[in-house]
């Protein structure tokens, strides 16, 4: 599809390639406006030929000095008509026609309008050096024309000056039209580029939002599914459990499954929405206040979790920072359940306004081989947490430390005000 900012035949633009350099097999087709303009130019030129010829035929005897030989009048009219016909090809070969008809500028009066139109076409559609060369050539022929076809009411130099004024006016008009067309093309291209960039920004914003929601749901679903796996594993390895224990585990499995399905349904609805461009994810929106509930949820499935809260003015923790801490602890507890089942987990929070907030999740390295029924992991949880911390301007560390424990630690900025 041809861009609206660039005509179908770009070599017709000011300063563009010549028709000889146009793509093979393509010819310049006139638009409706071009047909109207070319028709008016042709009719105007023919009308001028008829007017000049009739005026020469009936000229008074006192103006005989300004007239050529009588046989030259029909010859000049014929040349004028031929030049008028050539106007139909002026868009395709403006320079070639201007050079071919340049000798007529020495003497022809009937072809003068057609010659001016061809010269104007060169100025509008070709680079200015070409236009200036033809202008210089026209000024030279103007000196000869004023001698061969003198005006009985003007002196020689007055006739020359008049010809220079006409050439300068046509040149200025053509340069103005050329500049205006280039400006219109530039504005159209700029508008299309701005529209394309805006669409790209919208697409990128939508994609970033969806990626952020996907990271949120990875954290949520990994947490809930790990709870489901722990309870299902307990039922599998405790066939002698009492009916009360079985019922309690089944209730936790059912509630966790329902919660996971609800979160999954909500995020799929958001991802399907084309206008989901809000600044924050739609669901869920945990805060630091919900961290104790997260810890209790893990304790309810048998995980030994210790929470050491050393925060100063915890109520002033920014919402974004609190959400980041919640996700970091959630990922740490999920990893502990997956990779180190049965170990004790310690969660430590420290910091205050202006000092930043430090969060650490620590658990002993599992002893022995991989436990049977171990929950599989994708390995993307820590990657997502790293991206979250990096976007918040913080730091993240994870891995086995000198004591042999696995340590997940992060520092997030906490402004003083």
From TrEMBL:
Residues covered by the Signal transduction histidine kinase subgroup 3 dimerisation and phosphoacceptor domain: 209-273
Q: Which domain of life is it from?
A: Bacteria
Q: What is this protein called?
A: histidine kinase
CDD domains, sorted:
HATPase_UhpB-NarQ-NarX-like
> Which EC number applies?
2.7.13.3
Q: Which UniProt keywords apply?
A: ATP-binding, Kinase, Membrane, Nucleotide-binding, Phosphoprotein, Transferase, Transmembrane, Transmembrane helix, Two-component regulatory system
Read off the InterPro entries from this record: HATPase_C_sf, Sensor_HK_TwoCompSys, Sig_transdc_His_kin_sub3_dim/P
Which SUPFAM superfamilies does the record cross-reference, listed alphabetically?
ATPase domain of HSP90 chaperone/DNA topoisomerase II/histidine kinase
According to the UniProt record, one GO cellular component term is: membrane
TM segment ranges:
35-51, 71-89, 96-122, 128-148, 155-176
Q: Which reaction does it catalyse?
A: ATP + protein L-histidine = ADP + protein N-phospho-L-histidine
Signal peptide region: none
Q: What is the lineage of its organism?
A: Bacteria, Bacillati, Actinomycetota, Actinomycetes, Micromonosporales
Pfam families on file: HisKA_3
Answer whether the UniProt record assigns the keyword Nucleotide-binding to this protein: yes
Q: Name one GO molecular function term.
A: phosphorelay sensor kinase activity
């Amino acid at each position: 599809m041809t861009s609206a900012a660039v005509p179908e035949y770009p070599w017709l633009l000011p300063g563009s390639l010549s028709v000889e350099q146009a793509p093979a097999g393509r010819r310049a087709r006139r638009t409706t406006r071009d047909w109207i303009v070319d028709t008016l130019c042709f009719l105007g030129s023919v009308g001028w030929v008829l007017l000049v010829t009739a005026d020469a035929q009936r000229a008074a005897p006192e103006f005989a000095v300004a007239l050529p030989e009588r046989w030259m009048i029909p010859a000049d009219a014929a040349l004028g008509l031929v030049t008028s016909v050539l106007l139909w090809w002026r868009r395709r070969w403006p320079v070639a026609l201007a050079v071919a008809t340049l000798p007529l500028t020495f003497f022809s009066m009937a072809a003068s309008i057609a010659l001016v139109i061809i010269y104007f076409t060169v100025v509008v559609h070709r680079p200015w050096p070409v236009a200036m060369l033809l202008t210089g050539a026209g000024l030279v022929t103007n000196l000869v024309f004023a001698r061969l076809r003198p005006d009985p009411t003007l002196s020689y130099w007055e006739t020359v000056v008049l010809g220079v004024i006409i050439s300068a006016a046509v040149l200025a008009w053509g340069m103005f039209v050329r500049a205006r067309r280039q400006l219109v093309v530039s504005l159209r291209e700029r508008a299309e580029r701005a529209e394309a960039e805006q669409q790209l920004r919208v697409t990128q914003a939508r994609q970033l939002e969806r990626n952020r929601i996907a990271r949120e749901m990875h954290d949520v679903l990994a947490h809930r599914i790990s709870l489901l796996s722990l309870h299902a594993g307990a039922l599998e390895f405790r066939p002698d459990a009492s009916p009360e224990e079985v019922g309690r585990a089944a209730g936790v499995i059912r509630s966790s499954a329902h919660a996971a399905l609800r979160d999954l349904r909500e995020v799929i609805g958001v991802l399907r929405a084309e206008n989901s461009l809000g600044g924050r994810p739609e669901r869920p929106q945990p805060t630091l206040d919900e961290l104790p509930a997260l810890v209790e949820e893990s304790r309810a499935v048998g995980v030994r979790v210790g929470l050491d809260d050393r925060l100063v003015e915890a109520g002033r923790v920014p919402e974004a920072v609190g959400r980041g801490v919640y996700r970091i602890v959630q990922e740490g507890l999920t990893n502990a359940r997956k990779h180190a089942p049965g170990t004790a987990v310690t969660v430590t929070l420290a910091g205050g306004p202006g000092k930043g907030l430090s969060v650490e999740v620590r658990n002993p390295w599992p002893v022995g081989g991989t436990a049977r029924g171990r929950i599989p992991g994708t390995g993307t949880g820590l990657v997502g947490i790293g991206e979250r911390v990096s976007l918040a301007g913080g730091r993240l560390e994870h891995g086995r430390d000198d004591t042999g424990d696995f340590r997940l630690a992060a520092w997030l900025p906490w402004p003083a005000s």
